[in-house]
Amino acid sequence: MIRVLLADDQTLVRSAFAMLIDSAQDMAVVGQAGTGREAVELAGTARADLVVMDIRMPDLDGIEATRRIAAEEDLAGVKVLILTTYDTDEHVVAALRAGASGFLVKDTRPADLLDAVRIVAAGDALLSPGPTARLIARALRAPDAPGGTATPAALARLSDRERQVLALVARGLNNAEIADALGLSPLTAKTHVSRIMGKLGVRDRAQLVIVAYESGLITPRAPQ
Fold first, then answer.
1. Helix locations, 23-128, DSSP H
2. Distance, CA of 209 to CA of 96 (rounded, Å)
3. For a designed S-S bond to 150, which of 162, 174, 211, 217 qualifies (C-beta 3.0 to 4.6 A apart)?
């Protein structure tokens, strides 16, 4: 059973999401928060596995709430799925840098929300990785993009094959697609991804995309 905490300042939105999630046999809502501060507090007390987090909330916004959850040792197993819109690229990047495991547009279809909860809870961090990568590329290209920490030196820890795998992760490929592209088994591709995370000290695939762009392994493409 996936234990879900809903964090959104709009009561009607929370109620709708709660009804949807509770209708699924493999998940349950264990708490609801109307502010980011409440979300941080409830993440631990409600023993949530995953927080569905709105970005825009009073008292403490979703990005800072995500950062605090990710930094709390006792909440190491809690995943954060950010709710956002495609016109807020810089917020997506900031949320992923803060420790979010993925993002979802707020007007998504009900079935897609349930799938997103399952994907992120299982550790397959990036939801809709292709669009995510493009959002990150555009945001990092912006003059006022928030500063990152990854440098080309970070890639020195990786083998040539691991750099290839990282580049494909950043392009939005899942493990099966990476395996097909490189002539590997899916299990080997998954092992490579896990080792890359360990070497770079990141918590999930979302963070790998950030590292790939910030280090220069992947160059943002020109706007379409």
1. 36-45, 62-71, 89-98, 110-121
2. 9
3. 211
Rounded to 5°, angle at Cα 137 from 134 and 143: 140
Sign, CA dihedral 37-128-87-18, equals: negative
Q: Give the neighbor-by-neighbor strand order of the sheet with 27-33.
A: 27-33, 2-7, 50-54, 79-84, 102-105
pTM (2 decimals)?
Answer: 0.74
Task: Let me know: does 196 contact 162? Beta carbons within 8 Å.
Answer: yes
Strands (E), the chain: 2-7, 27-33, 50-54, 79-84, 102-105
Determine the 3-state secondary structure of 27 from DSSP. strand
Q: 28, exposed or middle or buried, with CB in 10 Å at 0-12, 13-18, 19+?
A: middle
Vertex 66, ends 64 and 67: CA angle to 5°? 65
pLDDT 10s digits, 76-130: 889 999 887 655 556 777 887 888 888 887 778 898 889 889 988 887 665 454 5
Find out whether 4 and 27 touch, Cβ atoms under 8 Å: yes
Question: What domains, with CATH codes, occur in the chain?
Answer: 2-127 (3.40.50.2300), 152-214 (1.10.10.10)
